[in-house]
Design a protein that fits this description.
Layout: H1 7-21, E1 34-39, H2 50-68, E2 72-74, E3 78-79, H3 84-93, H4 97-114, E4 125-126, H5 130-145, E5 149-159, E6 164-166, E7 171-172, E8 175-176, E9 184-193, H6 199-204, H7 214-224, E10 226-236, E11 243-247, E12 258-261, H8 266-272, H9 276-285, H10 292-297, E13 302-310, E14 317-323, E15 334-337, H11 343-352, E16 360-361, E17 381-382, H12 393-406, E18 410-416, E19 421-422, E20 424-425, E21 435-438, E22 442-445, H13 472-475, E23 476-478, E24 485-488, E25 492-493, H14 496-499, H15 502-505, H16 519-523, E26 528-532, H17 538-552, E27 565-568, E28 571-573, E29 576-577, H18 588-595, H19 597-606, E30 614-615, H20 618-639, H21 655-678, H22 681-696, H23 703-720, H24 725-734, E31 758-765, E32 768-776, H25 781-790, H26 792-798, E33 805-809, E34 813-817
Parallel strand pairs: 1-2, 1-26, 3-4, 12-14, 26-27, 28-30, 31-34
Antiparallel strand pairs: 5-6, 5-9, 7-8, 9-19, 10-11, 10-13, 10-18, 12-15, 13-14, 16-17, 20-25, 21-22, 21-24, 23-24, 28-29, 31-32, 33-34
Helix pairs in contact: 1-24, 2-19, 3-4, 18-19, 19-20, 21-22, 21-23, 22-23, 23-24
Length: about 800
């Protein structure tokens, strides 16, 4: 065996074996315990980045370890292939989005293979493939039949130049990120999925997800935002319909000094007539983003509508203001405003000189709440509230709710922050929504026999909206019901639609007759899901929702898609997240070519625990490479002896051999816990590095010494095989094994090797280290004291001195005080 480590040769040898023998291809085996490990699939942007490498290395280490435990392991890979970046690339580079996407897939697939990830490539899928999205279209039609999808108008971010809806992250400083045109808030007709029908189940099931990070569960809980409150009506003079609001704090009702409504509220349309200030403000609001997050951060502005609302209990008139912090798409588009007890309402009232009326007081001292500085938002005791004075906030909730209900002015209600999922986009590179519009028949789903509705390729992308709307050959069709002229829906699905069920399709990727088949029931749920924290809310929530839809359709039996979730940290360089815009990216391809894939894998696992951010370090990469060279050289030096390995005689080992075996199996115990339970791969690697250092100092050329050395090297290879699979594949073979390390079981700890016959104890004189002794594990105090006093070096420090006392700390140290 050549003592020079040559990563390119080693990795090619391993990968050729894996490819030739299809070692990662799996089928369903009901008699075996399954393990489905999945990493969030990538967008085919062109090249892998270090964030990808870290994500997929974590998943691969887990998969390979579970395989060594004897489980039937599925680890698939695919491509989240639809999306706006492909359209942008098409316009910038003059290539079709499909060509750009598939070229990128080819390149990135090759990169993943170079890194040695153990994927079952026979299950590969791309979401832009009609064989994939046809079932998405089919499922949408089934949900339409069940009234779980519907179409309505809703406010969106609209670019009047590109004539398209923009996601919130595509609006920068109020302008379109691409053309810098001021964005408008516009009402357009869109398709929605009724995720709110599953709000309670989505919320309650979070309790069962014990394998998820608490942070992620809390984020989902907050996003769903279940609250108990009261829906109540303010009558408006001159209008038949009341102004309906929802509040979780009915105890503050007597402190209402104004009502705020959205610019799109029907009442505002009447206020615009003859009121130029209101009309101008409504036009201003059209330029604002339509997201709840944007509302939180923007400057709060408003205008008095001139209308008055009648307080449902006091009968007092309060002004109705049009405010930019109220969205029509959330709740009723109107909120009751209590400046004394809500900070947003407080700031708005301060700005516009609206009265602030305190009605909640601290339970201890009325003077504690200083409203000159900020709102008092805590619960407390009511005052200045008429018949409700002296009630606590909790008591007032029931009392005020009861009064409103008895007078027909309000009702208790459970509300959610969660809104139905808008799934339509006015873009080209996405799944066509399978709907036809007929003047006679209305909205007609595309017949199942006509699926998939394929995305046409003969389009021109010029940035002026979706080309599907201008493509007559796609848009104009005959109605499937009456045969008259009709038009297709030209919107495409939000790409979250594709990524919300790919985990399930991997179980039945070649099924032609159905969305899923019985194989899904064998593999699901996913046992371990790995991905970034940035997907903690929407992607995971939509996938959970989709899982429940698939369950209710009878395709699967599991309630949740992912039993365990790991959210890995970001890869940083110079303290910042790697990004092209910052010029601080590191190309993994160059690292593979210079150091080999195993060095890249080793670094990403050693630099930090998976959940923490990883700080890039060139020297740490070099250090990883040196470790692999040292491991290789130690194995080569051992094998250079070419002697026959004699079986270990564990009962006849010398003390130094026992000590070496003890370190080996102590390391195995630690690594088994680190890799199998805690996923602290960095400490597992560190333990193996320490073991290799100990093995280098173990100079015993006897037959049993050679056998101990052989066992130690074999266990190091087995422990590191999930992390650095290429070098371990070759070393395992060189160490004399016919079967590949991939099929070797995870090693068992020899508990007998951990038993110590003797222990080393430190000897101090007046608290300073002066020597060491070895004593029997069961040695009594008297024997330990005598051994310490007799130690040669200790004699030099205690002779001619008076011994005042001897302190013995069992199994640790002896301190002789002179």
């Amino acid at each position: 065996m050549d003592e020079i480590y040559k990563p390119s040769e080693v990795e090619q040898q391993a990968q050729d074996y894996w490819e030739t023998h299809s070692v990662f291809r799996v089928t369903e085996q009901p008699e075996r315990e399954k393990y489905y490990c999945l990493s969030m699939f990538p967008y085919p942007s062109g090249r892998l980045h270090m964030g990808h490498v870290r994500n997929y290395t974590i998943g691969d280490v887990i998969s390979r370890y579970q395989r060594m435990l004897g489980k039937n392991v599925l680890q698939p890979m695919g491509w989240d292939a639809f999306g706006l970046p492909a359209e942008n690339a098409a316009m910038q580079n003059g290539v079709h989005p499909a060509d750009w996407t598939y070229e990128n897939i080819e390149y990135m697939r090759d990169q993943l293979k170079q890194l040695g990830f153990g994927y079952d490539w026979s299950r590969e899928l791309a979401t832009c493939d009609p064989d994939y999205y046809r079932w998405e279209q089919w499922f949408f039609i089934k949900l339409l039949e069940k009234n779980l999808v519907y179409k309505k108008t809703a406010p969106v971010n609209w670019c009047p130049n590109d004539m398209t809806v923009l996601a919130n992250e595509q609006v920068i400083d109020g302008c379109c990120w691409r053309c810098e045109t001021p964005v408008e808030r516009k009402e357009i007709s869109q398709w929605f999925m009724r995720i709110t029908h599953y709000a309670d189940e989505l919320l309650e099931a979070l309790e069962s997800l014990e394998g998820w990070p608490e942070q992620v569960r809390a984020m989902q809980q907050n996003w769903i935002g279940r609250s108990e409150g009261v829906e109540l009506d303010f009558t408006v003079a001159g209008m038949e319909e009341p102004l309906r609001v929802y509040t979780t704090r009915p105890d503050t009702l007597m402190g209402v000094t104004y009502v705020a409504v959205a610019a799109e509220h029907p009442l505002v349309q009447k206020a615009v007539e003859g009121n130029k200030k209101v009309a101008a403000f409504v036009e201003f609001c059209k330029t604002l983003q339509a997201s709840e997050a944007a509302m939180e951060t923007m400057e709060k502005k408003g205008v008095d509508s001139g209308w008055k609302a009648i307080h449902p209990i006091s009968g007092e008139e309060v002004p109705i203001w049009v405010a930019n912090f109220v969205l029509m798409g959330y709740g009723t588009g109107a909120v009751m405003s209590v400046p004394a007890h809500d900070q947003r309402d407080y700031e708005f009232a301060q700005q516009y000189g609206i009265p602030i009326r305190q009605v909640i007081y601290p339970t201890t001292d009325k003077n504690e709440a200083d409203l000159s500085q900020q709102a008092f938002i805590e619960k407390g005791v009511l005052g200045q509230s008429g018949e409700f004075d002296q009630l606590t906030s909790e008591q007032a909730f029931d009392a005020i709710a009861g009064k409103l209900e008895s007078e027909g002015k309000g009702r208790r209600r459970v509300n959610y922050r969660l809104r139905d999922w808008g799934v339509s986009r006015q873009r080209y590179w996405g799944t066509p929504i399978p709907v036809i519009y007929c003047d006679q028949c209305g909205t007609v789903p595309v017949p199942e026999s006509d699926l998939p509705v394929e995305l046409p390729k003969n389009v021109v992308l010029d940035g002026s909206g979706s080309p599907l709307a201008q493509l007559d050959s796609f848009r104009n069709v005959n109605c499937p019901k009456c045969g008259n002229k009709a038009v297709r829906e030209t919107d495409t699905f939000d790409t979250f639609m594709e990524s919300s069920w790919y985990f399930a399709r991997f179980t039945s990727p070649d099924c032609k007759s159905a969305m899923l088949d019985d194989r899904a029931k064998y593999w699901l749920p996913v046992d371990q899901y790995v991905g970034g924290i940035e997907h903690a809310i929407l992607h995971l929530l939509y996938a959970r929702f989709y899982n429940k839809l698939l369950r209710d359709e009878g395709f699967i039996e599991n309630d949740e898609p992912f039993a365990n979730l790991m959210t890995q940290g970001m890869v940083l360089k110079d303290g910042s997240k790697m990004s092209k815009s910052k010029g601080n990216t590191v190309d993994p391809q160059q690292l593979i070519e210079k150091y080999g894939a195993d060095t890249v894998r080793l670094f990403t696992m050693f630099a930090a625990p998976p959940e923490q951010s990883l700080e890039w370090s060139d020297s740490a990469v070099e250090g990883g490479f040196r470790f692999l060279k040292r491991l290789w050289k130690q194995a080569a030096n051992h094998l250079d002896d070419k002697r026959q390995i004699k079986p270990l005689d564990v009962d006849g080992l010398a003390e130094n051999q026992k000590a070496m075996r003890r370190q080996v199996h102590e390391t195995l115990r630690k690594v088994s816990d680190d890799v199998g339970r805690r996923y602290t791969f960095n400490t597992a690697i560190a333990a193996n590095m320490e073991l290799l250092n100990g093995l280098a100092k173990f100079e015993d050329e006897s037959e049993q010494g050679y056998a101990v050395h052989q066992e130690a090297l074999e266990l190091v290879v087995l422990m590191l095989a999930p992390i650095i699979p290429h070098v371990c594949h070759v070393l395992w073979k060189n160490l004399g094994h016919d079967n590949p390390v991939l099929d070797a079981p995870w090693p068992k700890i020899d508990e007998a090797a951990l038993v110590q016959d003797s222990i080393e104890m430190v000897i101090q004189v007046n608290g300073k280290l002066r020597g060491k002794i070895h004593v029997a594990m069961d040695a009594d105090r008297d024997l330990i004291e005598k051994a310490a006093m007799a130690e040669e070096n200790i004699q030099r420090f205690i002779q001619d001195k008076s011994i005042r006392k001897i302190i013995v700390v069992p199994k640790k140290l002896v301190n002789i005080v002179v």
